[in-house]
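REQUEST FORM: STRUCTURE PREDICTION
Request ID: SP-0412
Submitted by: Lab K.M.
Chain count: 1
Length (residues): 272
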Amino acid sequence: MPHAATLEIRGLSKQYQVKGETLPVLDNVSLSIKPGEFVSIVGASGCGKSTLLRLVIGLEDDYQGDILLDGHRIVGTSLERGIVFQEHRLFPWLTVEQNVGLGLLNADLGEARKRDAVREHIALVGLEGFERAYPYQLSGGMSQRVAIARALVNRPEVLLLDEPFGALDALTRAYLQQELQRIWAQEGITMILVTHDVEEAVYLGDRVVVMQPRPGRIKRIVDVPLPRPRDRGDYAFAAIKEDVLSEFSDHPRDELIAEPRERNAVEWQFSW
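STATUS: Completed
RESULT:
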């Protein structure tokens, strides 16, 4: 099992230069993520969620503040941090096992150990029997599972997920959310998910970080103290979901989130 990392983001600010003018994207973002924690980040388009992931993965280094992994400042990309994007980005001329194996190109492992790691992670994402298949022979959900296996095969300390299920249909998305939760529990690593889907954020996260835009900053952090596996039809789940959604509404939160007795004495029964 990989070592789960502590991620510290302190006073993070980021600007871009657009047509000679400074465009602030992130402003004084601070967040501490514990080892093995699953943190979901939600926010409207333009709030800097994806930029935040790009900085954590090390694709950009022009920023103010600190991003620390186990106390060490992040500099450039590293095998310690994996990432999965909304598009699977598989190479169409490579098979499943070859695409997964790309994650080990820079790993200091012998060929036998690399083959074992690829086989193990293909099994982890439930794609045994598809090792020799090409991307065009896979569904969208299967392709994303290959991308997850590729990101995990070198056993990173942190896995970043940037809208990984955003392009999938609702049924496939719900299934892969369950699969991702299983993989997270089995691998025991720190995961950070960026999503527009509040239900997804609550279903998967230990905490939900709500960001607001222009420039991007943390508005609120909502704890999700629910046992796993989570029941989307449970009242407590629905209440936390509504609580997060209220952050994107013009109405005060206390008008949207009421105690059960204040809901005209109606007992809601959910069934899925």
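NOTES: The radius of gyration is 20 Å.
Reviewed by: T.R.
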